[in-house]
Amino acid sequence: MSEEVKLMKGNEAIAHAAIRCGCDGYFGYPITPQSEVLETLMEVEPWKTTGMVVLQAESEVSAINMVYGGAGCGKKVMTSSSSPGVSLKQEGVSYLAGAELPALIVNVMRGGPGLGTIQPSQADYFQTVKGGGHGDYRLIALAPASVQEMADFVGLGFDLAFKYRNPAIILADGVIGQMMEKVVLPDFQPRMTEEEIAEKCPWAAVGKPKNRERNVITSLELQPDAMEQNNIRFQEKYKTIEENEVRYEEIMCDDAEYLLVAFGSSARICQKAVEIAREQGIKLGLLRPITLWPFPKKALADYANKVKAMLSVELNAGQMVEDVRLAVNGKVPVEHYGRLGGIVYTPDEIVEAVKNKIM
Amino acid sequence: MALEDIIKPENLVYKKPDIMNDNAMHYCPGCSHGVVHKLIAEVIEEMGLVEDSIGITPVGCAVFAYNYIDIDWEEAAHGRAPALATAIKRLRPNKLVFTYQGDGDLSAIGTAETIHACNRGESIAIIFINNGIYGMTGGQMAPTTLEGIKTATCPYGRDVKLNGYPLKITNLLKELEGTRFVTRQSVHTAAAVRKTKKAIRKAFENCLDGKGGANVVEVVSTCSSGWKMTPAKANKWMEENMFPAYPLGDLRDRDANI
Amino acid sequence: MKEEIIIAGFGGQGVLSMGKILAYSGLMQGKEVTWMPAYGPEQRGGTANVTVILSDEKISSPILNEFDTAIILNQQSLDKFEKSVKPGGTLIYDPYGITKAPTRTDINVYKINAMDTSIEMNAPKSFNMIILGGLLKVRPIVELDNVLKGLKKTLPERHHHLIPMNETALKKGMEIIEK
Question: Do residue A178 and residue C24 have CB atoms under 8 angstroms apart?
Fold first, then answer.
């Protein structure tokens, strides 16, 4: 790691990390609160240094399909957007999953539904982990809670995407995207060479050499029995990911009697709530899922044997709480606390919610 | 005379391109797709680009074009082929990148992608099959369907008050500064086939000389099944009805100041 | 050490950039830092505020209920944030545009005539630096040297000739802040 500490917004960290982790192409469309990703890339002009392609597309729809095209020819490509734009991308995301293409999508969430607000929200949890587009597919979903993690998860997201030939998504929100914090950017990593692409992505449409059959990137299979086999293969892959890639953080959980479950910016606010509650003598802990899919089901099931109750704290009307309840399977009460439409709770509000809802 | 006496290299008068494989095509008798596929394969082979071509198939009848020509392909979501082509060409600038799209794909759902890829002057070729109907989904109205023509979704004939006018998208594209070569051809006669092949070759060459600019080859085509005509009648009907609305010829050739 | 600060006023007053300079100064001083703007489409004239936290330890929430220090530059912000200052905390305000002065007695209230002074100095753009100077006088959370280093980081190279003027403004702010 180059130890130079910088101060930047989460959105800017995404852009700088993309350049540094050997990203070949970024395709995006401006939308608040994530426009700094594209703006930063256009200012830095990485095509002059690493050769990374950056393009402002005519729409989010076009941008995600540029990602599909780029990923299909073996390149490390990404896009970013915010909630309404990510809704537009869902068709392309489903195609990426169906064609088993590695790619990285960033969603810096804002309040919805519809055009909604530009303020922070976490109401795209369902969209991210339960589908979003059509068909039985999964995205590897990473939820950063700091600017440092915004930077770190670009590389991690790409690594996981290529490891499993599956799209990955960074699910952030307006707080993490707009906040400035200290960050140590990853070291420069060169873009993949053609030899590396040939080795890592033998399936890619790069131009057909004489010594192999043609490569076709497609999600289409009109024979239902063959399509069922494709789906079975996808499900096996998803099972492997669930077994190997669950990530979460435990904060003050050892002696916790009550457990908060929160991701992203909410986890940061909850951390302060834990500090306040502890000062008041309440043994409160926090489990922060880092991967929203695969979800830390087992860890939560284990905590169901240790704590009296759990509170899922989310900037939405109650989405992740359903997964927490599934994991806990009725062993302890699981309640939800949220604010909606772009309003962000303060640490005090969360402590109050703990007292009112689970104590 | 025995068969093996006839099949000898010196007796060869016609041969399909090597990269056209033996998979049986799913196209209907009389369909123009097969001819255009063959022309693309011929040009790729003649230009020595088999290892350097990446094609993009659409949603529509030609979705399975990748089954017939042995090059690398990507299959796009409906209308998005020019977006894929944009990224592939920018990431692999030395490759021949072309899309193959029908009228629904290119001029309805994919209008934005088509116009913006052309307007950016992407060094790609767009092969555009215009048969004035949705073939794959069973004969519904396309943006290019002629006025008065009956389809499954305009069963009493296209009424411009209800459905708007036949969209001459190629005429729009030729106005864009980003386009380099825009032409309208057909494959209904041997002479027309030769002209179309020339146009495809020119479009492909333009993609690789580093001068930039998008290239569009529209092929006014028949759909005997969709039109509910015999192939011979469809060809005649096309000449009499489609050509007046979609006249053949070069619409733009930047290199020749057209 | 941990200082939780809110800076609030109109867009265009340099609220966000003052916060940014403070954050960079903290970075230069080796602190943990967060800078969290209440972002929005209002670039000029609307309300703007930013939360800056400087700490020796890792910072948990960038969103806070209450603050050690509030820097208040218009009436709406005073109405909103006076009550959010921790007892014993600090409130700094510029009386320009304030119709109802702060009333709390359990906090340290400081007044700084930064707007008038910046006009007298014929340097209206150094308004926010005067305020920042005032803050550093009553809450010396970062050293002036590190503020200047922070300025260098936030200002594009072509504006580096303005640093001496900003230094003057910072020092002026330290002089004119009053209880």
Answer: no
Q: Is B201 on the interface with A (CB under 8 A)?
A: no
Q: How far, CA to CA in Å, does C134 sit from each of A162, C107, C119?
A: 53, 17, 17
d(CA A268, CA A202): 41
Q: Which stretches in chain A have pLDDT values below 50? A: 1-2
Tell me the domain boundaries of chain C.
Answer: 2-176
Of A236, A244, A260, the residue nearest A294 (C-alpha): A244
Nearest chain A residue to C31 by CA: give it: A182
Per-residue pLDDT of B84-130, as tens digits, reads 999 999 999 999 999 999 999 999 999 999 999 999 999 999 999 99
Q: Give the ipTM.
A: 0.94
Parallel, antiparallel, or unpaired for β B214-220 and B179-186? parallel
Would you say A62 and A88 are in contact if contact means Cβ atoms under 8 Å apart?
A: no
- Provide the shortest C-alpha distance from residue C73 to chain A (in Å): 22
Class of domain C2-176: alpha beta
Please give the Cα distance from A328 to A304 (Å, whole number): 6
Cβ pair C121, C137 in contact under 8 A: no
- For chain B, give every domain's residue range: 27-252
Q: Which helix (H) or strand (E) holds B127?
A: strand B125-130
Chains touching C by CB (3 or more pairs below 8 Å): A
d(CA C26, CA C143): 9
Residue of C nearest to A117 (CA): C40
Instruction: List chain B residues with pLDDT less than 50.
Output: none
Which stretches of chain A sit within 8 Å of chain B by CB?
Answer: 24-25, 27, 53, 55, 57-59, 61-63, 65-70, 72-73, 75, 77, 91-92, 95, 99, 204-210, 213-220
Evaluate if pTM is beyond 0.90: yes
Quick one: residue A101, left, alpha or beta (phi over 0 = left, psi -120 to 50 = alpha)?
beta
Q: Which fold has domain B27-252?
A: Rossmann fold (3.40.50)
Beta bridge partners of A184: A5
Helices and strands counted in chain C (H then E): 6, 6
Reported as half-sphere exposure (CB side, CA atoms, 13 A), residue C93 has a value of 24
Helix, strand, or coil (residue B217): strand
Q: Which residues pair with C7 in a beta bridge?
A: C50, C71
DSSP A33: T
**Domains of chain A listed by start with CATH number:** 5-194 (3.40.50.970), 248-357 (3.40.50.920)
Q: For residues A145-161, b (16+ Cβ closer than 10 Å) or e, as one string?
A: bbbbbbbbbbbbbbebb
Going by C-beta distance under 8 Å and a sequence separation of 6 or more, which residues neighbour residue A62?
A27, A29, B80, B83, B86, B112, B113, B116
Judging contacts by C-beta atoms under 8 Å, the chain C residues touching residue A7 are 23-24, 27, 33, 35, 153
pLDDT score for A2: 45
